[in-house]
Every structure is written in structure tokens, then in C-alpha cells.
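Action item from last meeting closed. Structure (387 res):
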């Protein structure tokens, strides 16, 4: 009965994002074949082009550039099993060479130079706010820190085949352990703790990491053929993937994957997944919101209540609204019978954009409404809770 109810809610769901486009939460195939050779690490540039490292079973040597429309070109070559990718603030692409222990720095025109050496099977890459580059040493069970000048030091130890890296908003570093299914959290001082664990029987072989704008962490599991979602408090659930190897597109609860490994997200909230076994790239939409794009110094001149995200949600969802001028604001949540469930805002606010997190707080499955009211504006939107 629960499965039937869940399916019905997904059919009813519409997620209206900032662009006004209507999205459902679905999986599709973005690209198949077309030069992909054991696709591994991802990076996305400022114009939305997707870069893919062709690891090729340890013998690959190039990085592809794929436009949002799916046109594929070779961006750079001459690597030694390219693995992790990341852009710096100046548009240079950094590439980890798994087989040689070298980190390459590639100019926007595709010219490659050596940035750092001496790593041990370097995999994922991530920059902190100071421009330091962090590298997971898959073969050394450590994470290295490389200064902008290329000086390498050990940042943290004690991992079990570390692979994925991702920073949260407070610059804690998260590390996926390929062999154990554990995700560690490392604070800025290098202290390592366990954040979450994904069942490792049979081996999950967890891969790269992605933090969404909702604060959830997304983790492809190569061995499970699933994509997991982990909430900010460490609650693990399956986002999509039945566990059966395949390439079925459609709703999240029926989609199948074949060796998912890398993950990245563009400004529209679209999530890309590489499938190593199938030489394929999949796209997930409707799970994460897009970036709200506004010209610099543009002044808000309208009231707006955005669709909550994620939707359906459990246990939390984010509600965003815009105010063109200061004034008294009320934001309340109601059940389907119109009974008030919670008051989220009841105060005077300045002009600007606001985002409020709503926690289900023991509520039952079903449809709920949230209403924004000001002196000159009132709007109500629907959201769906699924446990």
C-alpha cells in the first residue's frame, strides 16, 4: 500500500523552479559512447560545459569537453590514467594522473603543465576558500594538501582507499572510502570523524561526492548501482537506482544504473552521473534547485514565493521567497484541511531574498501548503511529504 501511495504522489508532483519551467524528478541518458572510455572524474566550467576524465581502466589519456547540447570534443591529452578534475577560480583545469602520481594544470586553451608530483594514486580533487588543492591518495590512504605554489603536505590520514572529496559550507572536507563504505568528515584542522556509512555488503564501492544546494550529500555507489542521498545530519537513503545493473530511464524509483562513479551538478540543478561500465552519462533533474541568477547590483522589484525544494521531501525542505521592500511578513504551513501546522516567519524583514528550512516534525505522509503573506502580497504553494 505504501508503494502505491508513493507512486501516486510522484505522479501528482510538479516542481516549479525559478525559471518557471515544470520539472518532475526523473533520470535520462545525456550521452552514450561518443568517445567515452571508462569515464571517471567530472568538472563543469562557468558556461555549463561538462569535462570528463577518460580513465579507461588505467590506460586512458584524455579529457573530453561536452557542451550542454551534447557535442563532444577532446579538450586535452597526454595524461596517465586521468581521474579527478576540478577548476580553479581562474578557469584552469586540474587533472589527477592516477598512474603517475602527478597533478596536471591545464590552461583554458588545453595546454597542460605539471603542477605537483609525489602523490600516490591521486583521485578526487577539491579547492578550499584559500585556493589550496586537496587530493585523495587512493593508494596511500591519505588526503594531501597542495598550496597555490605547489607545495605538498599530508592533511589527514587513516582512510581506506579514499576517493571522493567535497567541502560543505563550513569548509569541512568529506571523504568517501571506496573499500569500507564509510564517509568521513574532516574539520579544517584535519581531525577525522565518521559522518555516515553505506552498507558495504556486497561491496558498495562508493565513489565521488557532491553537495547539493539543499545541503544533502549525493554518493554514487559503483558496486550497488545506486545513488545515495545523505542528509546534513547523516541520514542515508537511496535517491535512485534499483540495484539492478541497467540503463532504464524515468522516475527515480525505477531507474537503473550500470557502474555509477562520478557526479557533478550544473547551475540548473541538473545532476550528471558517469557510468563507468556502460561508457554513458546520465542526467537527473528535479532533485536540486537551480541557481537564482541576477545581474550584479540589480534591485528586486517584485514579491515572489518559490516552489520548495526538494519536493517530495523527507525530512526537510527549503522554502525561498523574495521581498522588494521591508515590511511585516508571515510564512505559515497548513495541512490539506487548512489547519495551521507551523509558523515559520512572523516578523518585519528587510528587502532581499530569504530561505527557510521546514522540518516535517513528525507529520504524516501527504500534501501540505505553505503561504506567504505581506501587506501587499499573498501566495500559497503545495508541497508533498513522503516517508
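Sequence:
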Amino acid at each position: 500500500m505504501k508503494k502505491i501511495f508513493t507512486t501516486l504522489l510522484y505522479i501528482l508532483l510538479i516542481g516549479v523552479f525559478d525559471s518557471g519551467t515544470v520539472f518532475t524528478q526523473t533520470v535520462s541518458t545525456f550521452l552514450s559512447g561518443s568517445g567515452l572510455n571508462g569515464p571517471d572524474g567530472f568538472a563543469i566550467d562557468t558556461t555549463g560545459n561538462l569535462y570528463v576524465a577518460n580513465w579507461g581502466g588505467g590506460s586512458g589519456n584524455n579529457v573530453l569537453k561536452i557542451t550542454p547540447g551534447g557535442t563532444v570534443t577532446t579538450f586535452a591529452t597526454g595524461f596517465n590514467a586521468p581521474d579527478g578534475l576540478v577548476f580553479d577560480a581562474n578557469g584552469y583545469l586540474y587533472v589527477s594522473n592516477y598512474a603517475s602520481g602527478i597533478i596536471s594544470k591545464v590552461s583554458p586553451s588545453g595546454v597542460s603543465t605539471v603542477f605537483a608530483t609525489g602523490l600516490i594514486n591521486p583521485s578526487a580533487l577539491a579547492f578550499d576558500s584559500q585556493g589550496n588543492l586537496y587530493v585523495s591518495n587512493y593508494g596511500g590512504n591519505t588526503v594531501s594538501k597542495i598550496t597555490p605554489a605547489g607545495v605538498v603536505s599530508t592533511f589527514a590520514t587513516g582512510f581506506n582507499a579514499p576517493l571522493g572529496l567535497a567541502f560543505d559550507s563550513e569548509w569541512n572536507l568529506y571523504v568517501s572510502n571506496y573499500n569500507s563504505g564509510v564517509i568521513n568528515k574532516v574539520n579544517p584542522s584535519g581531525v577525522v570523524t565518521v559522518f555516515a556509512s553505506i552498507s558495504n555488503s556486497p561491496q558498495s564501492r562508493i565513489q565521488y561526492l557532491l553537495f547539493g544546494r539543499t545541503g544533502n550529500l549525493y554518493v554514487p555507489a559503483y558496486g550497488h548501482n545506486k545513488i545515495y542521498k545523505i542528509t546534513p545530519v547523516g541520514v542515508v537513503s537511496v535517491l535512485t537506482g534499483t540495484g539492478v545493473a541497467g540503463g532504464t530511464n524515468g522516475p527515480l524509483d525505477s531507474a537503473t544504473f550500470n557502474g555509477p562513479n562520478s557526479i557533478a551538478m550544473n547551475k540548473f540543478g541538473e545532476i550528471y552521473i558517469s557510468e563507468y561500465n556502460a561508457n554513458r552519462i546520465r542526467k537527473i533533474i528535479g532533485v536540486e534547485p537551480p541557481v537564482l541568477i541576477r545581474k550584479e547590483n540589480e534591485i528586486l522589484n517584485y514579491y515572489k514565493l518559490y516552489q520548495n525544494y526538494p519536493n517530495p521531501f523527507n525530512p526537510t525542505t527549503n522554502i525561498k521567497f523574495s521581498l522588494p521592500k521591508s515590511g511585516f511578513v508571515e510564512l505559515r504551513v497548513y495541512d490539506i484541511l487548512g489547519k495551521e501546522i507551523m509558523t515559520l516567519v512572523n516578523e518585519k524583514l528587510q528587502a532581499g531574498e530569504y530561505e527557510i528550512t521546514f522540518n516535517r516534525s513528525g507529520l504524516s505522509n501527504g500534501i501540505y501548503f505553505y503561504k506567504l503573506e505581506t501587506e501587499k502580497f499573498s501566495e500559497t504553494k503545495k508541497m508533498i511529504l513522503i516517508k
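Note appended to the action item: Residues 1-23, 293-299 have pLDDT under 50 and may be disordered.
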